């Protein structure tokens, strides 16, 4: 993915390298990305990482996931559209192979008279471990 984006400042390239090295399905906070970036660029500041994540998200190089109930957004490498599941018990976030069909999004936009540019779907519940710890049955 990184080969299709324009030239980046060195610090932003470091941020992208960190996110891509984490791999698909890894959801890192800006703080975690900053700590990993400092291993490569010891003088990189948190504000620089935050600005880099914003720019990389605008360029489509990283996905920003605002998770309901989460303390902060998480980031992952750009990928095909998919949903997320956040466990209300332990806080883990997992990728789900689910996306609203493009035809449905297009029809919804036409019906409402809006231009839908992106979708974010996050399901919240209890993961299998937390559900079994609570004695709950999975649906």
UniProtKB/TrEMBL annotation:
Its cofactor is Zn(2+). Keywords: DNA-binding, Metal-binding, Repressor, Transcription, Transcription regulation, Zinc. Pfam families: FUR. It comes from the Bacteria. Gene3D superfamilies: 3.30.1490.190, Winged helix-like DNA-binding domain superfamily/Winged helix DNA-binding domain (1.10.10.10). One of its GO terms (biological process) is negative regulation of DNA-templated transcription. InterPro entries: FUR, Fur_C, WH-like_DNA-bd_sf, WH_DNA-bd_sf. Zn(2+) binds at residues 87, 90, 127, 130. Binds 1 zinc ion per subunit. Signal peptide: none annotated. The keyword Transcription applies. Transmembrane segments: none annotated. The keyword Metal-binding applies. GO terms for molecular function: DNA-binding transcription factor activity; transcription cis-regulatory region binding; zinc ion binding. Belongs to the Fur family. This is Ferric uptake regulation protein. It comes from Vulcanimicrobium alpinum.
